[in-house]
Design brief:
The structure holds 2 protein chains of 2 kinds. Chain A is α+β, with helices and mostly antiparallel strands. Chain A has 15 helices and 11 strands. The termini of chain A are far apart. In chain A, 54% of the residues are buried. Chain B is built from 15 helices and 11 strands. In chain B, helix 3 runs parallel beside helix 8, helix 9 packs across helix 12 and helix 10 runs antiparallel to helix 11. The N and C termini of chain B lie far apart (59 Å). By secondary structure, chain B is of the alpha+beta class. In chain B, a hairpin with a 4-residue loop joins strand 4 and strand 5. Classes of the chains: A alpha+beta, B alpha+beta. Chains A and B meet through helix 2, helix 4 and helix 12 of A and helix 2, strand 5, helix 4, helix 10 and helix 12 of B.
């Protein structure tokens, strides 16, 4: 594996990790923008804009874009989060140049009114689809309740109302302010020719104009509010818990991930033994999510209405015990083994590697080898986990439940 | 017992004297290894009245095995850093894991206990059964998943489409005794396929598996005679935001000589974002966010399975548009469409071949359905051989039609 990096004079960073033994290559544009960079008035614009990039440029129609990708057999798509919009493709090595060239064009989209108006329907269908998925809906709503005015609580999809009111003009303004080259990282992983990628970037992106892009960074302590919403058609109780954690820049993020795994991995965790193994809940998981300047632990629990009180008592017990007695060496070692194998397996695929490569640069502006991450995970001690628990008190959480009407 | 190594290019194969088949695919560029056991005890292989037992069993066997109780077993698995996999299909319960190659031997010892010596305690059975019941109840809060399970149930002749999650009433009636007997009958090593892919030493794997799994040959149980499909249209009322639409039509099986023509035809319909369904339903009309169709093949039957989710007012137009695209396919396909479909299929194949987990699953599934493992080159060649004419000729002989449709949502559709 060989790492390369370069920066164009307009600030666009190009990074690549070359692995000649790979059978494929992956490319991604990591744009540092998401729902936290939106105002209430334009909530949902980052995600909508992500859809609009596929609608083409002044020279390419939407159908031509899709055909051009499909001609290469690329597995291509994009995703938007609270703070990143990522466009990616995994392809056979011989197609990487073509696909990268295509993306460089699409990152300067036409944003036509008629495409915007038609795609609005698709966005609203996506919002409707996730409303029918309470396991997603409860987390989305809990995030808003937890961050309580902090921009990280902004919904990625936006609401039907905010999307209805959004104009193509507002989207163009947002695009102009956020898609500056100095706010984008172009990353490649797998088997590819570094010089070719650099020359494509220089030719196609060299004239993009640099400008000041800002993001307000402040830690989100969390509201610790507790709410419950009812929906008549639901069968189960869906519960989301959130509490504050360290940021993506904080070296303690590895300890935080391990803590999440000890408390709430799908199998073998404290939640698992106390809740799922006893069939009190059918799902109970906790994960740590590191973000720009802040972070959060997020748990999802699903159970019957009858078990809610008991389940929540047990959850409080798990966190009380954690605060009082901490974690054991044995628990930490198991969590480390699990995270390490998952990390190694994921990074064997160029597409898996691309994601870590791009995000590490976005957040840290530096290259982390897989080895660096492995060593950082191995180095975490029980004391590191304890000091996190002490500082962030995961037992003091924001709680949102979504369930059927309670029988009176 | 001799080592029956001969297969196309780079595969390993060895058969134990009890008939259990061991398959391997070495991969140069990885440090990981993935393995799996396909146990012939899937949803369609169960006695009548036990729908869901496979799901219970797949959980129960992990609740203690060999000299370890549930907790000790789980700790041992986690201690090796295994990324666990467990699934129930129409034909099999599949258990396995992906891991760092150095821990393979110890992992196989643990899985031998799970498959051969599960503790099967009564109290653990009750928990496994309760979790399976809860999983079925939770389906009501996941209409997208539910519609596809219901669709298979309606489309395939019974028992092929039986729900892999189970039936509430039958789960409630299920006992530890019945489930224990199913394990005894159906965990038949003579019909079990073991596969491994990634970084491993096949001789060492064979010696270990042979020592652990050596047994007398056991007669196989045949699949019960197939019933008829329920078919046509089913609607389940749900006061949600969208109407979730599942649609399926029959096509040739993976063993058919026209299999690759069928795969390319489905790819023209729904292979990429320039394929027909995405273009017509989403891009031109804005009817859906999620729309897609895929080939779904069992050993005994196969179909093309389509999902779309849309708000109630657009449901009828969506169904009509999808059915229209299926019907229209046989009327003509361009060279460019076929080329894109072919390159998409080939590329997916190669991208998946980088993952030890997906290769381990693929070689086992090939062996079960075809009785041999196809090399990547063979699949690529077969895809390459398809043409506009061959796909259209296939569609003339085997037109997509006679749809089974299931909807879940606040509004029904009219099915012609």
């Amino acid at each position: 594996m060989e790492f390369k990096s370069e920066k164009l004079s307009n600030g666009l960073v190009i990074i690549g990790e070359i692995n000649k033994s790979a059978k494929s290559a992956a490319v991604g544009f990591f744009v540092k923008t998401g729902s936290r960079d939106e105002t209430e008035l334009i909530n949902g614009v980052s995600h909508f804009l992500e859809h609009m990039l596929f609608k083409g440029t002044d020279k390419l129609s939407a159908l031509e874009v899709n055909q051009a990708f499909d001609r290469t057999g690329a597995q291509f798509n994009a995703f938007t989060s609270e703070e990143n919009t990522v466009y990616y493709a995994a392809v056979l090595p011989e197609y990487l140049v073509e696909v990268t060239e295509l993306w460089t064009q699409l990152i300067r989209p036409a944003l036509r009114d008629e495409d915007f108006n038609l795609e609005k329907n698709v966005i609203k269908e996506e919002i409707a689809m996730y409303k029918d998925l309470p396991s997603f809906d409860v987390m989305d709503r809990c995030r808003t309740l937890h961050f309580d005015g902090h921009p990280c609580g902004n919904s990625v999809l936006g609401s039907e109302e905010s999307i209805d009111n959004l104009t193509a003009g507002q989207m163009r303004d947002y695009f102009a302010s956020r898609y500056a080259p100095n706010n984008i990282v172009l990353a490649c992983a797998g088997d590819f020719d570094w010089d070719q990628i650099c020359s494509i970037a220089a030719n196609s992106c060299g004239d993009w104009r640099q400008q000041t892009v800002e993001r307000k960074l402040e830690h989100g302590e969390g509201s610790k509010k507790i709410e419950r919403l009812e929906k008549a058609n639901l069968a189960r109780e869906h519960i989301c818990l959130m509490s504050a954690g360290v940021s993506a820049q904080d070296p303690r993020r590895f300890a935080a991930s391990l803590l999440g795994m000890i408390v709430g991995d799908d199998v073998g965790s404290r939640f698992f033994w106390e809740l799922v193994d006893k069939a009190l809940a059918e799902a109970a998981s906790m994960q740590f999510g590191a973000m720009d300047g802040t972070g959060a632990f997020c748990s999802y629990i699903r159970c019957s209405s009858e078990n809610v009180t008991k389940v929540l008592d047990i959850v409080r017990g798990v966190f009380d015990d954690l605060a009082r007695n901490g974690v054991t060496e044995d628990e930490l070692a198991k969590a480390q083994n699990k995270i390490l194998s998952a990390l190694v397996i994921k990074n064997e695929l160029p597409m898996g590697r691309l994601v870590d490569l791009g995000f590490n640069w976005t957040y840290l502006q530096r290259y982390q080898t897989i080895e660096d991450d492995v060593n950082a995970i191995k180095a975490v001690t029980v004391d590191d986990v304890h000091s996190l628990v002490e500082q962030f008190r995961p037992g003091e959480f924001t709680q949102l439940s979504l369930g059927p009407a309670r029988r009176t | 017992m001799t080592k029956g190594l001969v297969m196309a290019e780079n595969f390993d194969k060895y058969v134990l004297k009890n008939g259990m088949v061991l398959l391997g695919e070495p991969m140069e560029a990885v440090e990981s290894v993935a393995f799996g056991f396909m146990l012939p005890s899937g949803a369609s292989r169960l006695p009548k009245g036990c729908c869901g037992a496979s799901n219970v069993i797949a959980n129960w066997i992990f609740r203690g095995a060999g000299d370890k109780n549930s907790r000790q077993l789980s700790d041992a698995i986690d201690g090796l850093g295994l990324v666990r996999g467990r699934s129930v299909s129409s034909s099999h319960i599949a258990v396995g894991a992906a891991l760092e190659a150095g821990n393979l031997a110890e992992a196989l010892d643990l899985y031998a206990d799970i498959v051969l010596k599960p503790s099967l305690k009564d109290d653990q059975f009750e928990i496994a059964r309760q979790l399976a019941i809860d999983e079925v109840l939770s389906l009501d809060d996941d209409p997208r998943h539910k519609v596809m399970l219901k669709l298979r149930e309606q489309f395939y002749p019974d028992p092929l489409g039986r729900s892999t999650l189970g039936d509430i009433e039958e789960l409630k009636a299920l006992t530890a005794g019945i489930s224990g007997r199913i394990i005894k009958d159906k965990f038949n090593l003579s019909q079990t396929i073991f596969s491994v892919a990634g970084k491993y030493d096949f001789d060492a794997v064979c010696h270990r598996i042979e020592r652990l799994f050596d047994s007398e040959r056991q007669d196989g149980s045949e699949l019960a005679a197939l019933g008829t499909s329920v078919g046509k249209y089913t609607h389940l009322d749900n006061d949600g935001e969208q109407v979730h639409i599942g649609l399926m039509t029959g096509t040739v099986k993976p063993t058919d000589e026209d299999y690759y023509n069928a795969r390319v035809a489905v790819s023209v319909l729904s292979g990429g974002m320039s394929a027909r369904l995405f273009t017509e339903v989403r891009e031109k009309r804005g009817l859906c966010y999620a729309i897609g169709a895929r080939y779904h093949g069992l050993k005994e039957a196969a179909g093309v399975m389509c999902y779309a989710g849309t708000t109630p007012d657009k449901a009828q137009e969506t169904v009509d548009c999808i059915v229209g695209e299926f019907n229209r396919l046989g009327e003509g396909i361009s060279e460019e469409e076929i080329d894109r479909a072919k390159v998409g299929l080939k590329s997916t194949l190669i991208l998946q071949s980088e993952s030890s987990g997906s290769r381990s699953g693929a070689i086992a599934s090939d062996y079960y359905i075809l009785g041999r493992v196809r090399s990547l080159d063979e699949i690529k060649d077969k895809i390459e051989q398809t043409t506009v004419d061959s796909v259209l000729a296939f569609l003339r002989e085997n037109p997509f039609g006679d749809f089974t449709i299931v909807t879940i949502g606040p509004k029904q559709v009219n099915v012609k």
